[in-house]
Amino acid sequence: MAQKTIQGNQVLARQIRSRRNELGLTIEEASSRAGVGTKTWCRYEAGESIRIDKCKGICRALNWIVFPESDAKTYETISVQEYKTHKAWSPFLENTYGARAAMAFAAGSDILSDHINEDLAELVSMPAGSHLGQLSVSWLCSDLPEQFVMHYDYDFLYRMKCTLQNMRTRAKYGYPMTAHSVMEELLLYLCNEEASMLIELNDEINRFEDDDTASEEWVFDLLGNSDILSWLYADMYLDAEHPYHFFHWNDQQFYTEQDK
User: Fold this and answer.
1) How much is the pTM?
2) DSSP secondary structure code for residue 205 in this structure
3) Average pLDDT by consecutive 10-residue portion of the chain (260 residues)?
């Protein structure tokens, strides 16, 4: 499914350019903060379309709490019904946690796949052992746990890509989306995070927010806890024996009642 965009307009382009200048940032600095290339940032300032999944990066670069409001007609409509035919739509998530959960995984896995492929394409041209922290621009690097940055090499990303593809296949065929490993927990969490901006910007999607099953906390309901935040995003040092240490991310460690 094609990535959705905010149609280009000169008002938004001026807002982006003006804010960058107000902060004293060069195009190179702003694009690096946003996790995009300089050519892409230049297109933003020229008034060209912006992919919705890139809005969070632009907000990060320009210290915006929310993306600037503009004419609603500039937003390409995203239909929940359209996403129900998506190859990663999960009937299990929809029936158990609501349409928002299924939407978040389908859309988020698209976005995350793009980020993984972009970083793989850059790493393949670098010496063996190179990691995300060495890339000039990497969206993933800022979203993955900081302690293990030097382990995020080509092999890791390729395994991450394959695991995500396996989860998308499970979603398509209606299998339970139970996470058996830290890697799968992490991918579910990141998919929800990546899709959050797309969902928040779209009124049609937000209509199902009135549904009691539409909580954006569905990930933690599915996992049964918030250990992934407690251990991986809480600035705690983990030794090699800890189950959430990088060395154990692909171990099949977890089991829930949903597997019965």
Assistant:
1) 0.75
2) H
3) 67 91 93 85 87 84 80 52 88 93 92 90 93 84 92 97 98 96 97 79 52 69 94 94 97 68
**According to the model, what pLDDT value does residue 233 have?**
93
Amino acid at 203: D
Using CA atoms, how far apart are residues 20 and 13, in angstroms rounded to an integer? 11
The CB density around residue 85, as the number of other CB atoms within 10 Å, is 10
Residues 15, 29 within the same domain: yes
User: DSSP secondary-structure letter at 128?
Assistant: T
Residue 98 belongs to what domain range?
80-259
At 2 the pLDDT is 47
Which residue type does 157 have? L
Structure tokens, 168: 């998308």
Measured in degrees and rounded to the nearest 5, phi and psi for residue 233 equal -125, 25
Check: CB of residue 19 under 8 Å from CB of residue 64.
yes
Query: Can you point out the beta strands (E) in the chain?
Result: 5-6, 50-51
For residues 160 and 175, membership in a common domain is answered with yes
Q: What is the pLDDT of residue 139?
A: 74
Count of domains for the chain? 2
C-alpha span between 95 and 175 (Å, rounded): 12
What's the Cα-to-Cα distance from 178 to each of 73, 104, 121, 220, 224, rounded to whole Å? Answer: 39, 16, 30, 11, 10
Write down the pLDDT at residue 9.
Answer: 82
Could you give the C-alpha distances from 109 to 58, 69, 75, 259, in angstroms and in order?
Answer: 20, 26, 21, 22
Q: How many CB atoms lie within 10 A of CB 73?
A: 9
**Length of the chain measured in residues:** 260
Quickly count: other Cβ atoms within 10 Å of residue 31's Cβ. 24
Same domain, 126 and 235: yes
One domain for residues 49 and 108: no
Is there a single domain that holds both residue 138 and residue 55? no
